[in-house]
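The authors assume throughout that readers already know how a fold can be written as discrete tokens. For illustration, here is how one protein appears when written out as sequence plus structure tokens:
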Amino acid sequence: MTQEQHHSIALAPHPAFEAAHQAARKSLAEGGIPIGAALARDGMVIASGHNERVQNADPIAHGEMSALRAAGRQRSYRDTTLYTTLAPCAMCAGTIIQFKIPRVVVGEARTFDGEVELLRSRGVEVVVLDDQRCVDMMLTFQADNPDLWAEDIAE
């Protein structure tokens, strides 16, 4: 991707990415971890969700998992794109691989690089937007809540 293409993506994000970003902001407002995700098919949002570990005391309720749960049963995920505000962790990457989601659009991977390379090694197209809003939200959250962040990523 050229620098020019990168900027055009960042300036005009997909509505599903905006749904993921709004979900992350909702989680933050609820006192949770600000990570959101949305599943889309044919350019339409099927469902969105956010990290609910704090709100529901559920250790596997990461943003991606929440969005997939909200989407309900799907006959196939092979024609979907998962949008997420932060690079997926190992658990979420495993779910993406398991359901054969072919494309993941990541808001940012600076504050947590997750399993981007694992996804790519398994044939998943990963686009990292490097969205400054996502970076700023996570930097602030990580600085203000280091113990909660460490718990979320099992450190």
Q: What stands out?
A: The helical segments are 3-11, 15-29, 53-56, 63-71, 90-98, 116-121, 132-144, 146-152. The radius of gyration is 14 Å. The beta strands are 36-41, 44-50, 80-84, 103-106, 125-128. The first strand starts at residue 36 and ends at 41.
